[in-house]
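> call design_seq(struct)
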């Protein structure tokens, strides 16, 4: 999970060649967090790292490495949305949630992105997200069936980008360069992330959406979600946490595990991230962060479900992620399940 990247305080071009030096011996510290079986035979094991913090912010349990840096990807959106709120972005609660979303591309998500842009007299043409189909397979297939093409507004980070653009307009900042690391928007996000995670931000790369992505350790990522739920009511961080928890369907989508976890577990704040990342915090301040080595969704949501149950969540609330069907010939012949 280590990142030995010579990219301090600068954006890394997406055309960079692979850096094999990043795969260091720390990878050997990963442990089995989930597995999958087929026809009664163990077919594979999914390795990763995870941490649980107590309400005081101390590590109460861990698996694998807790000291190596990694890119939390979209799990950092809790801090990104908080920075926007702190800078004056005030939206209806469902749209506030969308500014920190990795949305599925359902119709209400796309309409919400348009609403955010319209609030500051911008159009989707201002978005600098890459042109993609919706993240959700059902929505993607529907787009293709309608003859639609990939578009920036359909990309799962378009809500975040719309929020950043709206924040720029509110503050009189340039909207054409909002993704540059030296832009006031990105500098504010860096400051917010460092504060909420209680961490120095020394390693910065480029996320899949084109925005800067800042590396943390697992305990630092867990502190990020923990600080959001423990912040006083009305503060920017709590505003975002409450928006997520009140409108979880805007954070993910109707068919997404991150949404299901927040809908079913009272007071839980959760945010998934690409390449097998997850963070969550209970209302009492207990917090979780994990990173799967293979970057898979099935390992990520299985491991998170297992950790949630180990912390007292009723198995019936997350049952489909504790025993995810594995198909063979269109029939269920095995499952994906947590090892925690």
């Amino acid at each position: 999970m280590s990142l030995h990247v010579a990219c301090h305080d600068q954006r890394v071009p997406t055309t960079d060649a692979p850096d094999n030096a990043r795969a260091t011996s720390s990878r050997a510290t990963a442990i089995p967090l989930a597995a999958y079986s087929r026809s009664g035979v163990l077919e594979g094991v999914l390795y990763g790292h995870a941490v649980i913090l107590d309400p005081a912010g101390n590590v109460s349990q861990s698996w694998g490495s807790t000291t190596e840096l990694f890119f939390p990807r979209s799990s950092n959106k809790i801090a990104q949305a908080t920075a926007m709120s702190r800078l004056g972005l005030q939206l209806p609660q469902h749209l506030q949630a969308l500014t920190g979303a990795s949305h599925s591309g359902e119709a209400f998500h796309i309409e919400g992105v348009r609403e955010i842009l319209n609030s500051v007299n911008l159009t989707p043409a201002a978005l600098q997200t890459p042109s993609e189909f919706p993240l959700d397979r059902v929505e993607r297939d529907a787009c293709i069936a309608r003859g639609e093409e990939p578009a920036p507004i359909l990309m799962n980070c378009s809500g975040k980008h719309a929020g950043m653009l709206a924040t720029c307009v509110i503050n009189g900042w340039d909207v054409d360069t909002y993704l540059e690391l030296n832009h006031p928007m990105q500098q504010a996000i860096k400051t917010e992330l460092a504060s909420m995670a209680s961490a120095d931000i020394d390693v910065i790369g480029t996320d899949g959406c084109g925005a800067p992505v800042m590396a943390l350790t697992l305990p630092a990522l867990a502190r990020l979600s923990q600080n959001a739920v423990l912040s006083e009511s009305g503060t920017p961080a709590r505003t975002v946490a409450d928006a997520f928890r009140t409108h979880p369907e805007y954070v993910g989508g109707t068919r997404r595990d991150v949404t299901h976890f927040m809908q079913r577990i009272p007071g839980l704040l959760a945010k998934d991230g690409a390449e097998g990342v997850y963070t969550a915090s209970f209302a009492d301040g207990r917090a979780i962060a994990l990173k799967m080595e293979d970057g898979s969704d099935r390992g990520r949501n299985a491991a998170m479900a297992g950790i949630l149950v180990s912390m007292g969540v009723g198995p019936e609330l997350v049952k489909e992620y504790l025993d995810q069907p594995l198909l063979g010939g269109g029939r269920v012949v095995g499952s994906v399940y947590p090892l925690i």
